[in-house]
User: What shape does this take?
Amino acid sequence: MTLHLPILQVIVPLIAAPLCMFLKQYPKAVWLFSLLASALTLLISALLLQQVLTSGTIIYELGGWQPPWGIEYRIDQLNAYLLLIISAISTIVLVAAQTSIEKELESYRQSYFYMLYLLSLAGMLGIVATADAFNVFVFLEISSLSAYALIALGKDRRALWASYQYLIMGTVGATFILIGIGLMYQMTGTLNMNDLAQRLPEVAETRTVFVAFAFTVVGICLKLALFPLHLWLPNAYAYAPSIVTAFFAATATKVAIYLLIRFTFSIFGLSFSFTTLPLQTLFLLLGLLGVFIASMTAIYQNNVKHIFAYSSVAQVGYMIVGLSVGSALGLTATLIHLFNHALMKSALFLALAAVMYRIGSVQLNQFHGLGRQMPLTMAAIVVGGLSLVGVPLTVGFVSKWYLVLAVIENGWWHVALLILLGSLLAIIYLWKIVEAAYFKPPVHEAGTIKEAPYSILIPVWVLIFANLYFGIDTRLSVEVAQSAAQSLFGVAP
Amino acid sequence: MWMLEIPPFVPFFIGAVLAAVTRGPLRGAIMVLIPVLSAIHLWMVPEGIHLQFNFLGYELTPYRLDKLSVMFGYVFHIAAFLAIIYALHVKDTVQQVAAMMYAGSGLGAVFSGDLLTLFVFWELLAFTSVFLIWARRTERAYKAGMRYLIVQVLSGVILLVGTLFYQAEHGTLAFEFIGLNGIAGWLIFIAFGIKCAFPVAHNWLTDAYPEATVTGTVFLSAFTTKVAVYTLARGYPGTELLVYIGAAMACFPIFFAVIENDLRRVLAYSLINQVGFMVVGVGIGTALAINGAVSHAFNDVIFKGLLFMSMGAVLKMTGRINGSDLGGLYKTMPKTTVLCIVGAASISAFPLFSGFVSKSMVMTAALENGFDWIWLMLLFASAGVFHHAGIKIPYFAFFAHDSGLRASDPPTNMIIAMSIAAALCVGIGVYPAALYSLLPYDTGYNPYDATHILAQTQLLFFSALAFVWLNLKNLYPPELPSTNLDVDWTYRRLMPAIIKPTIVMISRVYAAAAGFISGGINWGINFLSEKNSKLNGMISSNHPAGSMVLWVVVILAAYLLLTFFK
Assistant: This one.
């Protein structure tokens, strides 16, 4: 059984999705079933991580076909780490899903929701698990297509429009990636990532490879919402059902970052990506611009989901800055932030799901007085927000710490200063929410608003405690990230 | 002992939690007991490192106790104890909780043995104290608090960057002597300097402290700047630059204090002036000078607290605090008057009062180390202090022209707190050996010799004479309901004397420099506020899919161009 864990990781949610159809009439049963499936993937990913940590990279050949004919799955520390993040967040979010979805969706749509959710999960897990470039594209399409449908489920009619825009942009991105993969195939005759990594250096100085690289990177950057290719993201996050936002904000961009790391560091190789091509300058520039412009934009938003969506764009900027450093420490910082940002954003968006459940809106002016009316939910937003800012004892601080260390190691002290100034901007948009919730007279009459139900509150606080716990005990996040980064740099951990 | 390793901030934070859930007399009892128990505990703990653990692979030391830190530990306990008694009547839970957290953060900061722990408490000091300002619940206080918070958080961020650089340069986070070499040294120095209210970076203090609540200001005056003095004494003793900065800090606020109308703001200026003496002491860096700085910090916490308490009492009982609205209160507030005069005598360094035994140490050290000009400046500053804090405060509040106000003495708890503070002022002044035994160095210094007493007494009497003469001749800048921004209008109507334009000019130059910074902050706030709709529209409007795709093309094209034409 343990031999087949890599494929089970992907197959379980993929099979569970259509099986949901049998229970279609009973949304609650579908929810329990998908929760079970997601919990199973979490278990599998935990086992995988443990296995990788003890006995090194796992290679799995699909159907016993050897590469390059068959598809190969390859789980190293980086993959296992990502798989754990995705399946853990998916499971915790799903716990809260039933309560929130029951309120936000018509009953006949609820079963479809879980089905799409599982498909999307399977797609993301597949992207991470596979070691075949074309397989990446297939899973990318699975996760994206279900994502478009999930976003379109949003109650607000603008959800349709947001989903349509995401559809266009996502398709452009996926096409670019496909073009890139096609060009690579043309030059090397293989789709296996490992073989690609070996054969590409021979043809590295050709225009075709340059173009392949450019298309792949731009396509992935679209998916990860790197400034200025982020324009689809805020509306998609804001108008999607709250649970969808919590799930995607924590996982979707992370998967894209993983792809970027895989393509630039493992497949094309560090020296090609960073010295032959001007990737470093571009990433540093766009990353920092993203941090500042997205944070500034977040300050002006009146929809709290928009605020946090723009903040996600800014956080992606930090991760890209970490990549642009081009050192093991910089990559470590990015990987740590990947983990930590998943914790922050899932907690924050789930808390917003709680607000949505009670108030039916996440407009800032509807938050007035909620500090007293929904104290636990609001406290969660404040703690999660502090983590976003990077206050010590939260995970955000650990991320910033490593990022700044990495930047200083390179001697970019002005970048270090800019990173910390960027966190000051985060204080401002967090403050707007705090001010509304605690310092303004309530808009809702006393007694009409109750604290959110426990089915949402408990997952929220589990995530908040994770935010605090991993801010103090950094063994899991930092050590796995460190050894994953070092193995990508070819240094023995 | 089992509780040896409990750092002093822990009981205060527990106290804050208890204060949040209890009400009435029970809360009062808990809050008064906490500093007492914690002080006894601190008294029993020997020197050394008591708590250490690993975080991110660094050795962190949240509890280090030595002679320098314990001195501040004691005075913070005293200050917390006095301020809590003074605030016993307050029913506002926010204020009480914030005050406990704030006092605890101050203690955490002085006992932290590494820069990262220091940074945590540094930021906590900012975040907890700002609620004491907001608790006044006026628009003005809210805005002043906001500006205060921004400056404090900025100082924390600079400290963090400095810490990171320090780690990169030295490979350790231990908080020992830092010195002004390398980027790390300068960044940390600037961070400390902002919290210490260095010239031009001092605006947050005079801006925010007078806007805090009656009891909040008493807490505020004790901790933030003293933590900064402690950190300077730990990280930068003997840095000559500090001597000049300190001298400037001691002198410049005098001009402001003289023309300021809000009496609590006068005290805020004199707070900077007193901190200036401490900074000079740290800058000289000899055993005697450090002793002087530390003991002056110790005394200042008490007598400045006493003065803020007495002015708080006036504000609470009359609802006014402008010198022009007050006067003649001695008739109905006799106790407050006497206690205020004790505080005034202490800050002015009258022999037999606490200020005398510590300030003279700094002055002697300046003279011994060849800083003659600095000594003269400090002499001028001493005269100025006596002028605005020693005479002006009690005179305009309790004497001067009768304002017709007939307020009674404040509630008993306030009187008790002030009386204890006054008793400490006199006690330390009469028997300085008790204070000296706590000091980090043993210098065998004796303040009560003939030269000191004579020089100081002469200074005080001539200064008093000047005040009387100026007042009789109507040359003394009168207390008018004005703010500093209106100074020129106020004075142009009055007799053109030489003194006033000079004062006005100096204060105006200084105000311009300081105003430049606070103006910058205000501009920043406004720039980022909703009013700025043009920027908003530019970056956050909705985009059609076509323009999004355009961006994709631009990025791809740019990337390809960069690739081919590099």
